[in-house]
Target: Tyrosine-type recombinase/integrase
Amino acid sequence: MINSGDRPAIDATHDRAGEPSTAVAGGMGADPRPAPETPVGATELVPAPAPPTSVTPGREPAQDPVEEAVALLPALPLDDPGDRYGLRLLTAAWLRGQRSDATRRGYYRDLGGWLDHCARTGLDPRAARRADIDDWTASMTVTVGGRARPPSAATQARRLAAVSSWYAYLQSNDVADGNPTLLVKRPTSAQIAASARKAPTLGVAETARLLDTAESRAVAKGTEAAWRDAAVTALLFYTALRVSALTGADLSDLDTEAGYRVLRYTAKGKGPDGRDYVRLDGELCRVLDAYLTVRAERRPDGVCPPGPLLVTTPHPYDRAKAGGKRLTQRDVTNILRRQATLAGLPAASRLSPHSGRRTVITTLLGNDVPLAKVQDLAGHADPRTTRGYDDTNHKLASSPVTDLTRILASHRTRTRTGTGDPT
Model:
């Protein structure tokens, strides 16, 4: 679901000792949020209270949150009363037609960048031509560390693809005469691959140190936030789940299947009803159970209320912030980076939730776990996708160069130093 409204505040996730864990920007290997060309407020698509309903003259106030979000986009004229093919209504229908919430949020954000450019340049998006798209492409930026820079090839291609999809939808409904993005030069697949920034992958020793650090800290502090952080870390590095599966999980998703403890989750690419589950083993269960036990202790009835599996904790000084809200991807990123910093990991500041997924897959493949089993855990339809996670440390460790050296060694006649003559 798309949540609209002015830039919402991300709730801090504090422990009882007052240690803040408000998230920093980042996560999943994605580029930072778009900068100047992106409309402020219209693209902060994180869970937030619903804003006032739209007030298009001649229509009842919109109840659909997608329509409410579309009403915040710039450069879209008000729909005529009774016009079922108005630009705003069609834009909402286009967004609802996407396969997942993640795709809807991404398309909404990228379309917002284009429409903001239209608003700033006084352009009616329905009259846009290729030259206008070229101007927008040339002015694209992203913000990194408070500074604007040109976007990566992957980001540029993604934004163009979103806007192209929108125009194709309008064209199919006879609202736009053409698609101005069709002949725009886009980054090649090679450029996109070269610019892609993979989430750092941890080695086995680093992963163990991270898990040990998070759990030891939880034992020492005994707070709900500390145990939650340990549970988040363990879930990331024991299950290979995507961050959306973790943040979207509810307590009711903890279940049993064939005598095993499992976590049920919504699987990517399988629609709103596409559910799957992953097995939870002893090391992870120990930390997760401890978190839920400590969390229940602050309830009068000693029971965790129904709702999200992973939640914010009460603010130590502001009673108005009682916690209990679902963690966001940003929260998870912050938790992971803080734990990695405490563990002294060199890549701590660059880690994202996707690092857990990459690390699990790479570790399993690097220790001779069959590809089919790893593919099933990762939920990949194509084994080539799983192989794509086979990161450098596994490729080096399992390189056949060592085998080649051994095979040739018995046939070589030169000395070990390479300076002797054949004997």
Q: What stands out?
A: The radius of gyration is 25 Å. Confidence is low (pLDDT under 50) at residues 3-58, 415-423. Residues 101-121 form the longest helix (21 residues). The chain has two domains: 65-195, 204-397.
